[in-house]
């Protein structure tokens, strides 16, 4: 198999490339990535050059995408603009990449008759009440609440329409919040870890009561590979690890693991329209494909993540000042 991985130099995509090349020795990977601020070619350092081809390019480039899809056996579509705060400030890049870019991929996949797996998010479902026991499931209606989540919802609907209208060989997965190595330090968990490593108090949005369903990136990607190899065409699979924790719980755990008092943080202004709670019911992929997460204890996953950022300061230190300056302008 030769996989075309869009957004393969980003956080989740680069970890998927590493998984495929380590677990499937007969497979090769072609990565296309625009290398926006969230994409980093160094995320692919150390991988076998004879099995990995990197193309700097835009998924909205119809000619390039047509060529690369034609040369592949399957497409794994990670490429997306994905930061909620950024989508509130400037929505257009999210519409362009997440909707127009996905359309370009769908048309190329349709033309060449290739297999597609589309990566999406649980944020398309909106949010749940903090005191609600419900989880997002197979029949949950879409209810996005930001330009980012709305654009991802739109891309999901496009994939389903192409499956129904044109017989596209595609699957979709909606995953809960990822954490782990190579995640950009603007994101919640790496921002807290790198602040502590830099001797700066970490920041907590508002009361920190907002709940996310966390999953280690390796578990997410093992599920994606399982869907690619065994998933039923036309189906959507929800991926989660029963990792519900409030932002404050996550921050306190990071502080404890890094030897700091549990109250050693600053409270900053909350994000506009901040979703309250996400929770994924992953029983379908567990039941139908036999997938299970490895990191069932988030503390274990956070330890591994903290170790990675501790021993890879050269990867994140050049970014740190600019990220914190951007947050400072927003009082966060």
How would you characterize this protein structure?
It is a single chain. With about 325 residues, this protein is an alpha/beta fold. The chain has a domain at about 1-180 and about 215-240: 3-Layer(aba) Sandwich (Rossmann fold), CATH 3.40.50.720. The protein is built from eleven helices and twelve strands. The strands form three sheets. A seven-stranded parallel sheet has the order 3-2-1-4-5-6-10, sandwiched between helices. A three-stranded mixed sheet has the order 7-9-11. Helix 5 (about 145-165) links the parallel strand 5 and strand 6. Helix 1 (about 10-25) crosses helix 7 (about 215-230), helix 4 packs parallel to helix 5 and helix 6 (about 190-195) packs parallel to helix 8 (about 245-255).
The CATH architecture of the domain at 2-179 and 214-239 comes to 3-Layer(aba) Sandwich
Distance between the termini: 45 Å
Q: What is the number of helices?
A: 11
Strand content: 15-25%
The SSE string, one letter per element, is EHEEHEHHEHEEHEEHEEHEHHH
What structural class do the secondary elements suggest?
alpha/beta
Widest sheet, order of strands: 3-2-1-4-5-6-10
> Which whole number gives the mean pLDDT?
94
CATH topology of the domain at 2-179 and 214-239: Rossmann fold
Q: What is the highest CATH level, the class of the domain at 2-179 and 214-239?
A: Alpha Beta
Please, what is the CATH homologous superfamily of the domain at 2-179 and 214-239? Answer: NAD(P)-binding Rossmann-like Domain
Largest beta-sheet characterization: 7 strands, parallel
Specify Rg, calculated over alpha carbons.
19 Å
**What would the principal axes of the Cα set say about the shape?**
globular
State the helical fraction.
40-55%
How many strands?
A: 12
Low-confidence stretches: none
């Amino acid at each position: 198999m030769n996989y075309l991985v869009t957004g393969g130099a980003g956080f989740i995509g680069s970890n998927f490339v590493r998984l495929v090349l380590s677990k499937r020795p007969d497979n090769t990977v072609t990565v296309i990535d625009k290398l926006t601020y969230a994409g980093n070619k160094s995320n692919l350092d150390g991988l076998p050059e004879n099995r990995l081809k990197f193309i700097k390019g835009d998924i909205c480039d119809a000619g390039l995408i047509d060529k690369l899809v034609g040369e592949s056996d399957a497409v794994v579509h990670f490429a997306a603009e994905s930061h909620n705060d950024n989508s509130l400030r400037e929505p257009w890049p999210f519409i362009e990449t997440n909707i127009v870019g996905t359309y370009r991929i769908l048309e190329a996949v349709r033309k060449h008759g290739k297999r597609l797996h589309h990566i999406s998010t649980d944020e398309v479902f909106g949010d749940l009440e903090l005191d609600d026991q419900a989880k997002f499931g197979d029949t949950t209606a879409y209810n996005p609440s930001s330009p980012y989540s709305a654009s991802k919802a739109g891309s999901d609907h496009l994939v389903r329409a192409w499956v129904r209208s044109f017989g596209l060989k595609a699957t979709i997965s909606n995953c809960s919040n990822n954490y782990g190595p190579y995640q950009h330090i603007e994101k919640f968990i790496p921002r807290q870890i790198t602040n502590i490593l830099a001797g700066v108090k970490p920041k907590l949005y508002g009361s920190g009561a907002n709940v996310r369903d966390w999953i280690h990136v390796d578990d997410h990607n093992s599920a994606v590979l399982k869907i690619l190899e065994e998933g039923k065409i036309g189906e959507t699979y929800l991926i989660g690890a029963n990792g519900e924790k409030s932002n404050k719980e996550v921050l306190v755990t990071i502080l404890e693991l890094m030897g700091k008092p549990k109250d050693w943080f600053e409270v900053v202004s909350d994000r506009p329209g901040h979703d309250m709670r996400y929770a994924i019911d992953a029983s379908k992929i567990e039941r139908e494909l036999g997938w299970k997460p490895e990191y069932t204890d988030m503390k274990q996953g956070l330890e591994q993540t903290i170790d990675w950022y501790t021993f890879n300061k050269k990867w994140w230190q050049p970014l740190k000042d600019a990220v914190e300056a951007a947050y400072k302008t927003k009082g966060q």
